[in-house]
Design brief:
With 160 residues, the protein is mostly beta strands. It has two domains: 32 residues, no CATH class; 125 residues, Sandwich (Immunoglobulin-like), CATH 2.60.40. The strands form four sheets. Strands 4, 5, 9, 10 and 14 form a five-stranded antiparallel sheet that branches. Strands 7-8-6-11-13 form a five-stranded antiparallel sheet, with no helix packed on it. A two-stranded antiparallel ribbon has the order 1-2. The longest helix has 14 residues. The N terminus is likely disordered.
Length: 160
């Protein structure tokens, strides 16, 4: 066996060494995947061709999330030329993506507020809200960071 193969085998074996016994056992050099529970809450409203969005992203823990991205997908196109906050960008005429900033465990970020114009004056808009990236942190409860909301053109806030 060549010296390079012996070194490689030694590295592989060292990574497989287990420390402890039972439920507390873990492999040396293998970091456990971080877990968090991201959630998005807020409300949407629609009136006279305007779409209001108020969104708060939270992390119920146990790990911090350095950065996440939330997608807002609209069933109707939005009017072109609208300026978004610095944390957001247009992915298409129907999709806005926004970064949340750091989400500490058991913490929330500042409310994101969007005042958008629709391309026409629809009577209703379906909005899909979802986390699309969480910086490698696993979310064991994806139900509270994915919403499908029907918003009627009544000015009323539709809470999610």
């Amino acid at each position: 066996m060549s010296a390079m193969r012996r070194v490689l085998l030694g590295v592989v074996l060292a990574a497989a060494v287990v420390v402890g016994t039972g439920e507390g056992a873990r492999a040396v050099g293998v970091e456990a995947e971080a877990e968090a529970d991201l959630a998005h809450h807020g409300h949407l409203s629609l009136w006279e061709g305007r779409m209001g969005v108020r969104l708060v992203s939270e992390n119920h823990g146990p790990s911090d999330v350095p950065q996440a991205t939330v997608r807002l997908a609209f069933s109707e196109p939005m009017a072109g030329g609208q300026v978004l906050p610095p944390s957001c960008l247009w992915a298409s005429e129907r999709v806005v993506v926004c970064r949340t900033g750091e989400l500490r465990a058991a913490g929330a970020v500042e409310e994101l507020v969007l005042d958008l114009r629709t391309a026409g004056s629809p009577d209703e808009v379906m909005v899909d809200i979802a986390t699309i990236w969480s910086d490698g942190v696993a979310d064991g409860n994806a139900l509270n960071d994915r919403h499908h909301v029907l918003v009627l053109a009544t000015v009323d806030p539709y809470v999610f």
